[in-house]
């Protein structure tokens, strides 16, 4: 028997399942499985990528100062308290690596994002799943789930794949009630889709036990470049910078992200399109007998009568060139998560679900 063995917990990690992108034998496919921006990246980000090409023999800068300054300018946050990562996934990983290890517990909600569990296990810590209430984060359940071993509590607000969110007062109550050794991580991957929501920035200004993560992969349309960031109390950001690799973001990614966040007209346009077609799609599906909770993000969690119906609808949508996401792995076997596409995509989804329902009714 080999004595070469990985650290405990590593082999408990189930590989992350990304959203599918192809259906064999079907043309004109629309991918609505990964909550990407249906309108694509800002043209200014694309130009920044092109302009970066001639300089890629140079190492990128290590402190990300220009991007952090741009984020600071656009959000009003202090750039010193920002850390950039290869997607917010990397920030989640830094947090687990720095704050949780063997014997420690990492809380996440019942239908929470898969990377919390994966990163906790990779750090040797124990992920603990806490129930939600009707697909909404339950602060009382999270507080009850804490022990003296709890080191991190991950809450996505809005949550993926439910699309629901809880209010600032509830988040504050959670932060206030946590045991002293526990850090609350507010995952704001979809924060930009919510009007007037700061992702938890005001809370962070008042407390030393809250961090937030953000991403360029969703509203900003840069999922393929891998850029995310975290914001928190200075001492915590200083810790995370010690586990961060010095060249974790490429020059190309840094320049594209800076261009994307500065292109406020384009960002506004994308946000408005999302609100409009999200409402349209939710209503169209509801009228077909497929309800969803009011979504605060760029996807809808469509609920079906049973797992069998959800899977049959998914299979039918695939034949129509529409790829959505099954979420049985998120304890939601009766549901499908559908990214809000552009007008054409939303109309195609509604027509296909109508045809499916017509065929099975
Ligand atoms: C998409 C997503 C992320 C991560 O995205 P990155 O591409 O790694 O920035 C993080 N959290 C949630 C809840 C997400 O849905």
Automatic annotation (TrEMBL):
First-tier enzyme category under EC: transferase
Pathway in which this enzyme or protein is active: Amino-acid biosynthesis; L-histidine biosynthesis; L-histidine from 5-phospho-alpha-D-ribose 1-diphosphate: step 7/9
Requisite cofactors: pyridoxal 5'-phosphate
Claim: Glycoprotein is one of the keywords in the record: no
Catalysed reaction, written as an equation: L-histidinol phosphate + 2-oxoglutarate = 3-(imidazol-4-yl)-2-oxopropyl phosphate + L-glutamate
Domain of life: Bacteria
Residue numbers carrying N6-(pyridoxal phosphate)lysine: 218
Single annotated GO MF: histidinol-phosphate transaminase activity
Family of this protein: Belongs to the class-II pyridoxal-phosphate-dependent aminotransferase family. Histidinol-phosphate aminotransferase subfamily.
NCBIfam families: hisC (TIGR01141)
Subunit structure: Homodimer.
Entry protein name: Histidinol-phosphate aminotransferase
Organism: Sedimentitalea nanhaiensis
